[in-house]
Amino acid sequence: MPLDRTSAFYEENAETYAKRVRSLPKQLDGFLAGLAPGAAILELGCGGGQDSAYMLAHGFDVTPTDGSTELARQAEALIGRPVRVMLFQELDADSAFDGVWAHASLLHVPRSELPDVFARIRRALRTDGIIHATFKAGEAEGHDGFGRYYNYPSADGLLALLTKGGWRDITIEENDGGGYDGEPTRWITVMAHR
Prior knowledge:
globular, 30% helix, 9 strands, 7-stranded mixed beta sheet, two-stranded antiparallel sheet, single chain
């Protein structure tokens, strides 16, 4: 994230955001079930580190990353290991991971940069590697009440983007939920294989 209102929000509110009461994503166990025991997982946008902690506790080899220095510090305190501070656009791994967990993180990537970011993720995965990503559904880019940028894609738009990018076994689901802002949210969940 460039140093804008989105990244400023996470830097300034890191402790509150990281320590909020949060249930683990219901899709996490399903994602892990599709991987071999001890598989290498890259978490993009680990936030406070709760998902990484869960995956580590279940024996997976997790590489947590976040674009916010302050959130990375919060996650490090929780999981007891380094968190790489990295923007999605800086991902340069090649066939290094069996899975990529990007829960409620890629939704901050500018729409124009999503094809490149998905290509970087695909390259970072091994053959048959899996990605899980969630987005807030919409039709046009915009900002929430905290000033955070969201790409607000449609399910059809994501399907077209992933198909064009060479992904296979693409599954897209939509459901209603909420978010940090307390507003009702329509979520899109994407699972696909390299």
